[in-house]
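Help wanted!
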Amino acid sequence: MPLLTVTDLRTSFHTRSGVYRAVDGVSFSVERGETLGIVGESGSGKSVTCYSIMGLLPVPPARIEGGSAVFDGIDLLQCTPAQSRAIRGKRVAMIFQDPMTSLNPYLRVSEQLIEPLLIHEKISKAAALKRGLEALEAVGINDAARRIHLYPHEFSGGMRQRVMIAMALITKPELLIADEPTTALDVTVQAQILELIKKMQRDLGMAVIFITHDLGVVSGLCDRVQVMYAGRIVETADVRTLFHAPLHPYTRALQRSIPALQTKGAELYTIRGLPPDVSKPLPGCAFAPRCEFATERCTATPARLETVAAGHAHACLRAHAGEI
Amino acid sequence: MSAPLLQLTDLKTHFPLTRGFIFKRAAGTVKAVDGVSLSVARGEVLGLVGESGCGKSTLARTIMQLVPTTAGTVVLEGKNLTTGSGAEVRDVRRDLQMVFQDPYASLNPRMTVFDMLAEPLRVHTVCAAADVPARVAELMRLVGLAPRFMQKYPHEFSGGQRQRIAIARALALEPKIIIADEPVSALDVSIQAQILNLLAQLCRKMNLALIFIAHDLSVVKHISDRIAVMYLGKIVELGPALDVIERPSHPYTRALISAIPTANPDTERTRQRIVLPGDPPSPINPPAGCAFHPRCPHAQEKCKAAAPPLIRAEPAREVACVRLGEI
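Answered by r_m:
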């Protein structure tokens, strides 16, 4: 049985200018110990999916319209606050994009770091501090005994992200959700953090949901990848299939627009147009207006995610019909 | 070769650090830019790469004379900006324009696109008042925006469109050189490519020189003729773009290239990657000798002795590393 099963999740934002369907019928599952990558551009709903699961969205304006997210037999969207408190921060942990704003600047690192332990485990403060120290050492912070008592502003960006990871992993969670954890960091520091996440995953045997817009990051880290566009999953496959034989035109276009893979001097490949406005109804495929293969049928008929091979599903009518 | 368009000679920008509130006393200096010499030819695209805190943005601001220069000169077409009076610098700025990283912060939310593009035209009286609307429309078309959006405010545009407005604003005075400070870092992959294409196309069409600052080497590779790699206020490697990427000489450049994740799941899991330990050091107390030696996999005793100068290693390549021939 999968560790987490999300079924037909629908989340919208009710604002004065309309209802934005940020997540529009997303279903997926994560097995124990697996790394799932969720890829998409900003506004594709990849972060909102995970925030919905974690119950971190402000209600209102957000509203979870339907669906379920079953973690080890408990539906996170329906469970009591007490049940959800026992899971969040203990069995499911999350790290965020911006290490500059996600630590509390008023609290010493030690206090924030051991807070999950004090809440979730019957443990003395001294014992928690000892675990905190071990956690900081495990994420590669030198001189941890002194640094644990510093404030977040005394750490660099990469160090803060290490602190965030230490904090998330201190309760040995079964699932880690990482929301663009390296986007705000330099490439050299990004390489360090990715290595660290891989190592911690091996050591703890946890499952990871890794949200990113960078296909390059996904290729080295994830077992399976799902691509999101306008609140829907357009393609999901194991990482090799997704990179070597993508079927959905959006996945192909995304791959072609990676600058590193293109020859120098030539005009860079671009996806024309802009992502759609998700407050307006999208009767057909959301990518159709920007798709070079789109026909009239694409703009009128909804495209459903259909399995084409073991573990490989996509939502393109024309690819299903074998036309492209 | 004819005289370069822009010539930087031993440029230094240091910021004093003070302690105390009323009785301020010096507590050190941040050597943000510490002895940079560079030249940019007419129509040339120079990519400037480095980690955050290496001084690349300060270098851009120093060239623009937005921060006071500590030492060295910035010479644009024979005119020295570092010694010029305020009026002279203002005048020269017509030829020297800047595009900033964050298109959400660099556009005034209370000005329409028309106001923003018309302002430089009016300030420098480039054209008659009656011709301003036509010129604004022309600028918008130039960057791929429809002139009918002229009366709209920045919040009505997407990130990529805002960056187009910022580029149009920089182009309004027909400058000879544009400094773009991480212009695509805040944008999505598919939009990044659009802006890169636009910049490359404008440079070709208008014979515009461009200093393109980024931390992402794969982006810089595409647009640049030459690449300069910066580390802690100094240039450590300079050479033709493809050559630097394919045959990096300085250990830092090698590490920087190696850190870029490749979008290939087969090679990505097996390739040997150089993972640099630690963070870039603080520019307040930089390490003695070569500033990179504490993180360098090839560092020896002699690297700690003196800061290596940028020397010409090949006809078109300059590198600052004492172990150049050995590694």
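OP: Thanks! One thing I noticed: The longest strand of chain B covers residues 25-40.
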